[in-house]
Design brief:
This protein has 165 residues and is mainly alpha-helical. It is built from five helices and three strands. Strands 1-2-3 form a three-stranded parallel β-sheet, with helices on one face.
Length: 165
């Protein structure tokens, strides 16, 4: 089933590298977004690469007539950080309140909300007959063996911290 799967590396802040990676693709899965356990210095450390990278992927998908783009977003994009604002059931109409994310220093949540909203807004503004399909997946945590062992993998670091106290 995945015999033709190709995993490519690109830089979220380099639109040309993303365009090269997507050239010739029929389907694209965009999984990259900065996620760190240590508090970032400012929102832009996470927001800029998440939003700019996602938008570069969207533009490259459109330019290359990709059929479907799947984006790994986050439950943080739809699930409000303040307990008073939480609900039992969420739908595609729900978005996290970005003002509240700023209040609690939730820069990762802010980055995922803004990146996903940007992707949906971009896709909706395309001529209907030229739109690629857009799918977002909103997990709460990614657990499993990483494809790479170099560099940080914050989800694995989180699991390690849970097990080691």
């Amino acid at each position: 089933m995945f015999s033709r799967l190709e995993i490519v590396e690109a830089n979220l802040l380099d639109a040309d590298s993303l365009a090269r990676a997507i050239a010739g693709a029929t389907y694209v899965v965009h999984t990259a977004s900065p996620f760190v356990l240590a508090p970032p210095r400012n929102a832009d450390d996470l927001v800029r690469p998440a939003v700019d990278g996602t938008m570069a992927v969207c533009r490259a998908c459109f330019a290359n007539k990709v059929k479907r783009l799947v984006i790994t977003s986050s439950c943080a994009a739809i699930y409000d950080v303040r307990p008073a604002d939480r609900k039992a059931v969420y739908t595609e109409e729900d978005w996290s309140n970005t003002a509240h994310q700023e209040e609690v220093g939730g820069y990762y949540a802010l980055s995922k909300t803004l990146a996903e909203r940007s992707a949906w807004n971009y896709q909706q503004q395309l001529p209907e007959k030229e739109r690629f399909e857009l799918v977002t997946i909103n997990p709460s945590l990614i657990v499993g063996k990483p494809l790479h062992i170099h560099g940080g993998f914050a989800s694995a670091e989180l699991i390690t911290k849970l097990f080691t106290g």
